[in-house]
């Protein structure tokens, strides 16, 4: 592993071609991920934040090869996995797992929970049913459920419990990386904290690394070591968590941060209201993609795309820091 990097993504792109008419003529591409480079160090939690539609979920799925990259490279422990064949991908999937926003979608409603979690163990080669069931019970207890829950069906559980089952399923194959895609955003606030604490505990216990995807900076801040901010398919900024929260550089990061509630009523901060919605990634704005909404935009911004440059502990793509 080079420099302790478990995952490295180099100039990754994921475009979805848009075709119309009888002849399915190619008329453009939805550029969901458009040249992103980042890394995740072994044992680290990298938080990935941005508004809905910025490409963060697609990036997570493309890293796991659930989506085929259009261009760029994905390295796992220094090994290029961008073009791995199906067989090699299958064994790689044991190392990289996903926890979904909607745990229901990853659970078969006709299968008992024990069978769903056990399926992952079967794939891993645990063929003895008794052993499999014993390990399922241990896993369920480890994620805060009871071993008797193995006999029940998904509809008998609350949203938070289903998410615990989803986590148990991911853990069953002893992964090293978990891509958690908005794992708490569908849950009540009180349950969110429980699931975040569980993920934090499991990380330490199993030496896991996470790519933790969310649209809410306060959720991301709860669990991440570093934070990467995405806007319209590109990275706007990346830095250690404390530096993002204390001294955000990119105007988009500042705007996201200004919307995070602070618990101290004596502290006031000015909310930065962004004009308009996120533009379409089918036809992104020229130059800096954030320029139509940026309160600090100036003459060069619509003309020239800013590079992602190192400024102190931050990587930032903004002409203000040239
Ligand atoms: Fe705003 Fe210009 Fe910086 Fe883009 S490059 S974030 S438009 S100041």
Which sheet architecture does the biggest sheet show?
8 strands, mixed
The strands making up the biggest β-sheet line up spatially as: 6-7-8-3-9-10-12-11
CATH topology of the domain at 5-84 and 216-321: Rossmann fold
Low-confidence stretches: none
Which secondary-structure class do the elements indicate? alpha/beta
What binds here, in terms of ligands, is:
iron/sulfur cluster
Question: Span from first to last CA?
Answer: 32 Å
Write down how many β-strands occur, each being a DSSP E stretch of 2 or more residues: 12
Strand content: 15-25%
Percent of residues in helices: 25-40%
Order of helices and strands: EEEHEEHEHHHEHEHEEHHEE
Mean pLDDT: 92
Please give the radius of gyration in angstroms. 21 Å
Quick one: overall form? globular
CATH architecture of the domain at 5-84 and 216-321: 3-Layer(aba) Sandwich
Note the total helix count. 9
Fourth CATH level, the homologous superfamily of the domain at 5-84 and 216-321:
P-loop containing nucleotide triphosphate hydrolases
What does this structure look like?
There is one protein chain. By secondary structure, the chain is α/β, with parallel strands linked by helices. It has a domain at 5-84 and 216-321: Rossmann fold (3-Layer(aba) Sandwich). It has nine helices and twelve strands. It has helices spanning 56-63, 86-92, 113-123, 129-142, 159-171, 189-206, 217-223, 241-246, 251-258; strands at residues 5-20, 25-41, 45-49, 71-76, 79-80, 96-99, 177-181, 209-214, 226-231, 234-240, 309-311, 314-316. The strands form two sheets. Strands 6-7-8-3-9-10-12-11 form an eight-stranded mixed beta sheet, with helices on both faces. Strands 2-1-4-5 form a four-stranded antiparallel beta sheet. Strand 7, helix 6 and strand 8 form a beta-alpha-beta unit. Helix 3 packs across helix 4 and helix 3 (113-123) runs parallel beside helix 5 (159-171). The radius of gyration is 21 Å and the shape is globular. The two termini are 32 Å apart. The model has no long low-confidence stretch (mean pLDDT 92). Bound molecules: iron/sulfur cluster. Residues 250-251, 288, 290-291, 294, 296-297, 301, 306, 318-320 line the site of iron/sulfur cluster.
């Amino acid at each position: 592993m080079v420099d302790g990097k478990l995952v490295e993504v180099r100039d990754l792109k994921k475009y979805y071609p848009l075709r119309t008419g009888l002849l399915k003529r190619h008329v453009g591409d939805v550029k969901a991920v458009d040249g992103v480079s980042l890394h995740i160090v072994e044992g680290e939690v990298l938080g990935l934040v941005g508004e809905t539609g910025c490409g963060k979920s697609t990036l997570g799925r493309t890293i796991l090869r659930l989506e085929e990259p259009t261009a760029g490279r994905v390295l796992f422990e220094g090994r290029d996995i961008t073009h791995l064949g199906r067989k090699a991908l299958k064994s790689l999937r044991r190392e990289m797992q996903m926890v979904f926003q909607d745990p229901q979608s990853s659970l078969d409603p006709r299968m008992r929970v024990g069978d769903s979690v056990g399926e992952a163990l079967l794939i891993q080669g645990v063929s003895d049913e008794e052993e499999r069931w014993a390990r399922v019970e241990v896993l369920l207890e480890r994620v805060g459920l009871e071993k008797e829950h193995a006999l029940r069906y998904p509809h008998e559980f609350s949203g938070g419990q289903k998410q615990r089952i989803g986590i148990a399923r991911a853990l069953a194959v002893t992964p090293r990386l978990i891509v958690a895609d908005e794992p708490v955003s569908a849950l009540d606030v009180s349950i969110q904290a429980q699931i975040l604490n569980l993920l934090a505990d499991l990380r330490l216990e199993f030496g896991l690394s996470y790519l933790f995807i969310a649209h809410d900076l306060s959720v991301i801040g709860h669990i991440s070591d570093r934070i990467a901010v995405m806007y319209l398919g590109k990275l706007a900024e990346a830095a250690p968590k404390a530096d993002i929260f204390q001294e955000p550089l990119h105007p988009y990061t500042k705007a996201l941060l200004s919307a995070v509630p602070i618990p101290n009523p004596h502290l006031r901060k000015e909310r930065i209201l962004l004009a308009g919605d996120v533009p379409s990634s089918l036809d992104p704005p020229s130059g800096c993609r954030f320029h139509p909404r940026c309160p600090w935009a100036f003459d060069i911004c619509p003309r020239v795309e800013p590079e992602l440059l190192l400024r102190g502990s931050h990587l930032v793509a903004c002409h203000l820091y040239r």
